[in-house]
Design goal:
InterPro entries: AB_hydrolase_1 (IPR000073), AB_hydrolase_fold (IPR029058), Serine_prot/Carboxylest_S33 (IPR051601). By secondary structure, the protein is of the alpha/beta class. The chain has 18 helices and ten strands. The chain folds into two domains: 231 residues, 3-Layer(aba) Sandwich (Rossmann fold), CATH 3.40.50.1820; 184 residues, no CATH class. Helices cover 41% and strands 11% of the residues. Strands 1-2-3-5-4-6-7-8-9-10 form a ten-stranded mixed sheet, with helices on both faces. The N terminus is likely disordered.
Length: 527
Amino acid sequence: MLHPAKKRGPLTKRAAALLSVATATVAAVVTSPAGAAPTAAAPAAALRWTGCATPRYPTLQCASLKVPLDHDQPGGRQISLALTRVPHTAATSQGPLLVNPGGPGGSGRALAGFVASALPKDVAAQYDVIGFDPRGVGKSEPTLDCGPGHFTPVRPDSVPLDAQTEQANLDRVKSFADACQAKHADVLPYIGTVSAARDIETLRGALGAAKVSYFGYSYGTYLGAVYAKLHPDRVHRLVLDSVVDPGGVWYEDNLAQDRAFDARHKSFLAWVAQYDEKYGLGTDPAGVEERWYAMRDALRGTPAGGKVGPAELEDTYMPGGYYNGYWPVLAEAFSAYEVAKDPKPLVAAYERFGAVEPSAGNSYSVYTAVQCRDSAWPKDWNQWRADMWRTHAKAPFMTWNNAWYNAPCAFWKTEPLAAPDVSNASLPPALLLQATEDAATPFEGALSMKGKLKGSALVVEEGGGNHGVALSGNKCLDEKVAAYLRSGQASDATCPAQAAPKPTPATRAVPPTAGGTALHGLLGFRG
């Protein structure tokens, strides 16, 4: 997921709903007969690959694929998906390996080159590594962009301490939901995980492949699980990294994130306390936490640089919950503001991590459209208010910020589906990877998914807190992935976490200490 999560008390789980009537119809239409041996399909539409090389990825190719807007009306309106490919070079190929960075709303085109270069050469050589922008995203057409300027600073304080602040936030999210309906009413019923999974099946046919392999991060794990549910006999390998809890899609998963991100933020503050000689914020983690919230309170009255109020501060520090390689930069900014009384590094950190670029209007629009369509959200704002204040009492770091990020779903006009039950006893063994302290997709989600995918193996990064752990510098994890992609064989295992970063002298530097800077730049945070 593009959005927050972390640590643990027992998760509140909804029972995974069975497919809705519409989704059940999807399964009936697109699932091959049980036990049928897949055969290579003639390409559904000729893919014309053209060179789009970059200095880093000199063999990268690009193409586009037409798919039905409504898969139940294949002769109706067509839309296009933007694709990339790094072709296999081995004499014998294991077929396509589709890669997805998550979101929903994340562009996957750049991920193909990264994965092909990060895997061992002998493994990458066996696969056509395929990146794609899911429907509505990036270079796919049409693209969604509901509300340009939705994140323009300074926004109302995310914590609604009075009725006026709450109403200002409500007006803002209602406006976004209304703008989506006004601009994209014709496509919103078809922007969702099931439709995206059906696109993958169309892509498989266009590739002429009997089976595809799939490697998904974050939300991409859920998309992969849904595709595998619809087409278990079309799956060759399935790698799911930083795993969504399929039983909480999506309201409960976001509440779990709130608790998880708060714990991860406390881990960051405890790390700051370890380096008092560098940052001067104290040696007691609780005292450092008090100073962080004092900074937040001060910004309510006087936003830093006229840009960074409380909501923007949360946006700036939330990426530290995704990747601890950002901690030194965030600590420098915190220290400069609190100790040196210099707001400039905080503004610079906001512009780097928190400020929303124009392209993010697309990713957030797709994020919202998918999440609001995938499953039902409470429509009674009183329920949201009660749940958020209850969670905020124990997890104040991101609860309300996360609520407003998802709150357009309370006012969404497109009717929701029911989330499919991804339980699957027909797959080849899948490989799941999960850090125990992951914030965006808490550890319990991986356990839940493992229980639903019969025969799957779970590789745990013990003590790790980053979101997206494979191909980010942990040799133990990377070897497990490579071995699985070679042979399809995997077993449960535990790998130690990488070392935490060390302070760095340069405010703008992102150290390579823990690895993974390139990967986390591709996975992003909140689009």
